[in-house]
Batch of 2 targets.
Target 1
Amino acid sequence: MKTHARVVVIGGGVVGVSTLYHLALKGWTDAVLLERSELTAGSTWHAAGLLPLFNMSYTVGQLHKYSVDLYKRLPAETGQDVSFHVTGNLRLATCRERMDEYRKYCGTANTIGVPFQVIGPEQVRDLWPLIELGDGAATSKIIGALYHPDDGHIAPADLTMALRKGARARGAQIHEQTEVTAVTRTPSGEWHLTTSKGNILAEHVVCATGNYARQTGRMFGLNVPSIPVEHQYIVYDESPELKAYRRAGGRELAVLRESDQSYYLREERMGWILGPYEAGAPARFADGVPDWFGKSLFEGDLDRLLPHVEAAQRRVPSLANCGIKDIVNGPIAYTPDGSPLIGPAWGARNLWLNEGHSFGITAAGGSGWQLAEWIVEGEPGIDMLGVDPRRYGPYTGKRYVVQKNEETYRNVFVIHFPDEERADARPAKTSPVYDKLARMGAVFGQRYGWERANWFAPAGVPAEDKWSFRRSNYFEHVGNEALRVRQHVGVIDLTPFTKHEVSGPGAESWLDGLVANKVPTKIGRIALCHALTRRGGIRSEFTITKIAEQHFYVVSAGAAERYDSDYLQQTLPRDGSVTLQNVTMSRGVFVLAGPRSRDVLAKLVDAPLDNTAFPWLTGQLTEVGLATEVYLLRVNFVGALGWELHFPIQYAHHLFDALFAAGKEFNIGMAGMRAMESLRLEKSYRMWGSDLTPDYTPYEAGLDRFVRLNKGGFIGKEALEKQLAAGVPNRFVTFEVHGVKDADALGNEPLFDLKNNIIGRATAGYYGHALRKSLGLGYIKPEFAVVGSAIEIEILGERKRATVLIDSPYDPENRDLRA
Ligand SMILES: Cc1cc2nc3c(=O)[nH]c(=O)nc-3n(C[C@H](O)[C@H](O)[C@H](O)COP(=O)(O)OP(=O)(O)OC[C@H]3O[C@@H](n4cnc5c(N)ncnc54)[C@H](O)[C@@H]3O)c2cc1C
């Protein structure tokens, strides 16, 4: 074995080997893979080999698409067959909400170019003659289906071998029976790996260790939020009916998924493989995989499977004539949201994760492709926020991950409503006034472990969501909250915001080199600043306030705490000229917004609040009521006169009570996240993570006024200059959707011109309660980005007319803000 390599991949499952293959493909041939046992010895050997293109995530959908395309090419390239059966994939629907889900998915599929068909029951029978369509009594009636003609199933071990061949042909090396047992960092920043076959130094390390992710992470000091869950499938004997159908010339049947009964069924040697996602599957190996496990499996648990077996027999009656040959029960890696962890680890340079794969056969190609790009080029080619390992934070302790993973597993096939909020492992992280909000009728959701009030049920209204793809039970109440902010005054608890203090002689120049806007130079000024990728895409959004000389207060999205904190830490100058402190947990945030907000605040603050003394986009370090050291910032995300109060957390209760006492005469009330969504859409405020992502530059996002090309160097500047010279390919627009009865846009819907050509995609949408318009935000080709331009959008399968509006259609001159 070599003693030095540019990159070492730990783990020889399909994901690790694909990563090695793609690194070699990109020219990093000084690459070594170490496998403790033999290739495919982890979960890969016993996987069922299904390759579903279906995925509700924009990022994961693109990774799966790449994989399916790659796997079709691999045999010709490597000479190794991979047994890719392109059978197609049929997902049944037996209720309207399921059809809504498929139609919502179709929007995503359209925007990423995945072919699909939405079909009716008769076409289902044509494709799948052995099926029982159901009479609505003993067997529920199939009302439609989603059909992917291009995917199917593959032999996972053969796929791994093909990738292995491709990697080795380019010079990469693979060492089996070589376990990595310890890691240290050399003074020069290389990784020193101790293995069962000697030591190796590496510039970069990729962890792709499947079920071992947590123990591998521990070697590097990381708490990786991936713990496997038991997953079973049944292998059946030959089916006489299937045999007869095939002998008569029938083609291999599409992989069948009856989502409403939570199972998949595919052909296997004239018999079947049936795989349920059942309730009660336990998480395993939370403290690490024991040495004895090796290539073993768990005992099959038929009782857990039986409800799904019975459901499958109702749908495919001939299944009852087949004997069960085997039950395969193996560990399958999971994460709390079910998506993998692909990208840089946190807290260390040149350490990469490709872990937590529950659809790893499907995702291996795409994850290897993008991770290799990230390592070699310094950033990925597509928006990877949905799988970035730093989307989780320190809140993902063992018990949290166990509970969430078990929940995610049993919910694989539930309808993925856009407003779904799952219950397990909650509440965990709460704002100090959580109980007060609950007493006010708050219906909570969870983001980055935090409980956030989505809306408030008035007295007599049940404080619960009815999840839907359409307007639901909370619509009217959210509207009242939004209107209160527009007409009176509202409070929003935004304590989860990510907050950093940056100070020291180098603070200003360091921040200035990170962001495209000019960092404020005058004490008290606030600037909205964007950190870009080297390709010019939007990486992060920071609201930066100059609090004092050499002292800045930096606020960003709550869900970006680790993502932003890690980035700031990694880019900090090494000369000690800047001190960075994460104060997320020590400061709470209340937004006070609405035309009467000044009247409320005036009762609690001695200093004048008029426009001369306290103009828009300024901040002051002051006292509010009894609370001291409050950063009072005249900004907000709802487009109203208002202030954000960033206060030492111990004052949360005092300030909350004081605001409500002072605001009583002005009709003060709470507003939740959904009201905020409605309000910010009316102002065309772009949301980091959905509207602002690395896929788009600030010019595409219409944030030109936050870019200062003449201020000196910053990350992404060259790319922006190039884009300006070549022409900006997309423009961000706000549009009104016409003829909406009950389904607003939500994001990820395709946008069309009037000749049926796709011209862009929506990134967000909802109803603007003050404007009384169904609104959408999104990116379209520049020629259509003109006020008044007529376009179309497809919402849940229905084409709707839409009109491009002026940016910030509510109060475009910002009179409210500056009042
Ligand atoms: C029953 C079942 C059915 C499934 N069906 C499907 C399916 O149909 N489609 C699909 O897409 N996915 C399926 N999966 C999931 C799929 O198997 C996994 O997502 C995939 O195999 C993960 O691959 P991996 O390379 O990440 O992990 P693994 O295959 O587990 O590989 C990790 C490797 O790392 C090695 N390793 C660990 N620690 C070290 C160390 N310290 N040093 C060196 N080597 C180390 C291990 O020995 C192992 O070989 C299924 C899973 C199960 C359990």
Target 2
Amino acid sequence: MPPEPFFSGAGLDRADLLRGQPERIAGLASDRAARQLRWLESFPVLDGEGRLEWGPVDDPALFLGFDQGAPRFSALVPASPADVRAAFAFLALLDPNDAPILAAALSLTNWHRRHRYCASCGKPSAIVRGGWSRKCESCEAEHFPRVDPVVIMLAEHGGRLLLGRQPHYPLGRYSALAGFVEPGETIEAAVARELNEEAGILVSHVTYVASQPWPFPSSLMIGCTARALDDRLTIDTTELDDARWFSREEVAAALAGAPNAAFLPPPPYAIARTLLENWLAA
Ligand SMILES: [Zn+2]
């Protein structure tokens, strides 16, 4: 089995069929087995093992679904989204088994905080469907939690991989290039456009590898590989500090944590890491 990205897995039974039944959801909130995710400011609370902590239900605004038949809720959290460093520190502690639940709960609560008004008419909207949509109280337009597709990709040329450095990366880190899919674009076109914009290369054979929800705040990372037609780079220095080709040996040494490795690889919870591991294993 090839390695799977962090945030993979079934998570909770989302019980979509119940979402349109507010009385049933209210009944579930008073079920003896019901639990609510505990939050401290921008993140859920973790126990000493990195598992999500659950407590009594006192604000069942968001119905997350069932964990082996037991109802699970989350509250509306007023805190602002955390910055990227706080997010990475949190992910480093989180047990991978709870990552899919975290992804859903975090994206959902951040979406509600930022979408309290109708995007059509500007009037207040209300939570419906157990927290999985909002309905305008004036024009009745329904709005759904957003998911923003992002392509993230490895370009290959002559057995070497293209990786880049963003300005905010820790010293020495290189990772896969990435960018948002634009309206009217296929995944393949977005991969080709981003690689051309950021590194000045043309590619063919775009191939899907794996995907990963990334709840900061609502991305879906779509991991791909592509073949570069040549290896001459023209780097967009407004997006990247640097981009370089790395050999198979250099990638293997970096993933193994070799002290003299050519670069510091992306962290284990990043899909870029999974793409590199898959490429090495292939
Ligand atoms: Zn409206």
